[in-house]
Fold this sequence. Notes:
Immunoglobulin-like; mainly beta
Amino acid sequence: MFLAAFAALFISGWTALTPRACAADGAPVWTNFYNGPGNGDDNAYVIAVDSAGNVVITGYSDGGASSYDYATIKYLSDGTPVWTNRYNGPSNTYDFAYAIAVDSAGNVFVTGSSDGGMGFNNYATIKYLSGGTPVWTNRYNGPGNSYDEARAIAVDSAGNVFVTGYSPGSASNYDYATIKYLSDGTPIWTNRYNGPGNTYDYAYAIALDSAGNVVVTGYSYGVESGSDYITIKYLSGGAPIWTNRYSGPSNSTDIARAIAVDSAGNVVVTGYSDDGTSDYDYVTIKYLSDGTPIWTNRCNGPGNSNHDEAPAILVDSADNVFVAGFSPGDLGFDDYSTFKYLPDGRPAWTNRYNGLGNGHDRARAIAVDSAGNVFVTGQSLGFSYYDYATIKYLSDGTPVWTNRHSWPGTSYDDARAIAVDSEGNVFVTGQSYGDGGFNSYATIKYSGPTSPPVLVTSPGSDGNSFRFFFDTLLGRNYTVEYKDSLLTTNWQVLQTLPGIHAARTVTNTAPGVPARFFRVREQ
């Protein structure tokens, strides 16, 4: 029945696709708020999207008698809330979730910091089935029996889970502490790293390569170098294979905040670093898979002062590197600052965003879609105080749209996380200051540029081509994608074509396939 409905769209050997007749790219689709049972502050920190386009968010929420709890929510792609799970740790006090991941089966993993009693926190990592059923909860109390805080989580293709953060040692102050759990929750290994300064070592970010090896980054105090970037790679089995430190030119404060791995297993990290003259700069470093550093890029914003900070990094399918954060402009106020670097480290473009209020604008998070389009979000001063501000850039840096969200009236809205699904729809979450004087989770979906799929059942006369008519805009690019079945998850790219009002012949890459679904996406 489904196939028949789409087959009816095929007309006399050519197919008319009009992608711009769909919801406008970037149009708000739905907004969901969550106010916890304590009717106090609720702050969403992170977001993830599963293969079906469903959305999960987590953070912390006032539970009233239970103080702050983890609060994890799943929404269907259409915004329908499916389940909400709260986690109150054994001390019935402070539980803060900071990281989330989703595996290929839609299972959800969250981690953070949970008070285990006596005012000291432990890592607390939870697995939920796709339907919301909690499967296991693992707590980690480090050898210092003090304050342990997990900050990042990742899951591999087998459903194994990796968490990292910082944890006091018995005689070493704070150390990196990275743990691997099997899918069933069994802990496999725990690796701790104590830097040469034997003081503060804080891991903030984690990433996995295609072989299940894990890399973590953050900062670590040296002997006479202040804090340095410290990036460590472990094999999937837990063996450390390299450790790289980076100390900037001032030999002072260098703090890595984000990490990503490209298709070849190369590692990129970013954060901020004191250069001794203009205070903090963005610093982005790329290491080969074996740990060899191949390029380092420093960026000092036009304000040449104060604080340039990069909290977000990603790589696209072509191994281009995108970094987002904020840096002061000429007037001394922070602006969004987003960079694209080619794989060899050459800067491709830089975009700055100064919001409506001409004050502080701070990008917190970044996402990239399969076409290399880039999305950033964060907090931006508007006319009524701070708003969410979310921007889409084409792969070449052209801004496509900017969306702002503010609770009615004067409010403090702060977008913390962003994700994009396979259709190019964009999801943003964070905190929004409501009429009652407290923050609520606020999650928004913006539409992507995807056209509906069309089934083509009759190839051209050569058995290997189709004719499409694009009613499109000049200056835009369009990607033709296909599936052999709507039951499969991922669309495959067939061709990328410029937008012109003309008939186009599109070559099918698999001759003899009797029927395929095709669609067009505006990049």
